[in-house]
């Protein structure tokens, strides 16, 4: 019987896993200097957490969630994103009682039943952050500067920061009204989903991917024309702060995002090299969500980076070689194998990566294997070496060779590596 991974679900293998590890380690470093601590959120949650926050009439909730009843008949969902879970945890654990801001990062797999294509998977990984408790526009700017710093640190340049403000509950009603008026005489030409959205959630018509709906949106009123004074001044201050920090951006009044929880600032980092799935990271403010989940009114903001997309971009710009062993110990004879293992244990305890020839093959074939692994050094141990207490070493890059006392081998390698 032969099994394959599910459609839209991938293994991350060498050499790509090196890129992922590089991103994860840089992210941890950057998040720690900005005071974000790690939070591990569950992969499964009660379905209501997502329907309530992301929104009943969004594509994610209507079409893309992996939802199933557990054995007790409860509706469970594989998380399609991380924000809702972090908010659930923030409220459930009363983290709002701690001094603001409370700042978290997470990473792990998310699940959406989307049509797989380049840059779009059914299981994909995000690294995300969420910051609670600060309403000031400087919070938005600091978060964006952290994102830029991280993307720069991992090796990406030339990304475009697209930014918008989608207003709050105060300005939303007048914008909704304008949308309803605009689409009124186009209703019959909209796709069936958008006809439903017209009644339930007209804002969602703006991120419908159906060609004729995109066409009908050409002259749609823009949300920025409807935002209230509070949202306007918040947004202006965010932009001024970005300028001060030398972060360039593009205003994109059509950026409404596919999740209902957003208020005011929304943004995406995009790259033209990614094809149609061009957002490598995205996020925004969600100042009502903590309250909707039963906590006190708490401003919040966050973003999530798509790991597959970030890794794909990095792969184009840099070569990531697999790591290679420090030493390959080639052994001749049974006694040499056991001695080789003992020496390897000692060298490994000193932090060196050591492979030992265990399969009894000829010296030539063991040295060929050492070469294939791109090992930096080979040690050769046979009867002579065992009796003299020395090993032969060979530098596999420049072919120099010599002898070293077994007890001094680790010291020797550390001094020459
Ligand atoms: P999102 O825009 O749905 O936002 O996803 C964030 C990023 O995850 C996208 O920009 C993209 O890079 C990646 N992504 C999304 N779906 C897929 C997919 N099917 N395959 C591959 N990559 C994908 C959120 O998830 C929000 N929770 C972000 C956020 C955090 N907002 C506030 N805090």
Textual characterization of the structure:
Helix content is 38%, strand content 21%. By secondary structure, it is α+β, with helices and mostly antiparallel strands. Strands 1-5-6-11-10-9-7-8 form an eight-stranded mixed β-sheet. A five-stranded mixed β-sheet has the order 13-12-14-15-16, sandwiched between helices. The protein has a three-stranded antiparallel β-sheet with strand order 2-4-3, with helices on one face. A hairpin with an 8-residue loop joins β9 (263-270) and β10. α1 runs antiparallel to α5 (137-154) and α5 (137-154) packs parallel to α9. The longest helix has 18 residues, at 16-33. The structure holds histidyl-adenosine monophosphate. Histidyl-adenosine monophosphate binds next to β6, β10, β11 and α11.
Task: For this entry, give a set of tags.
417 residues; 5-stranded mixed β-sheet; alpha+beta
* Strand element count: 16
Mean pLDDT: 94
Gyration radius (Cα, Å) is 28 Å
- Unreliable stretches covering 5 or more consecutive residues: none
Cα end-to-end separation: 46 Å
Percent strand: 15-25%
Strand line-up of the largest beta sheet: 1-5-6-11-10-9-7-8
Q: What fraction, in percent, of the residue positions are helical? A: 25-40%
Shape: elongated
Bound molecules: histidyl-adenosine monophosphate
- Tell me the structural class: alpha+beta
Q: Helix tally? A: 15
Sheet with most strands: 8 strands, mixed
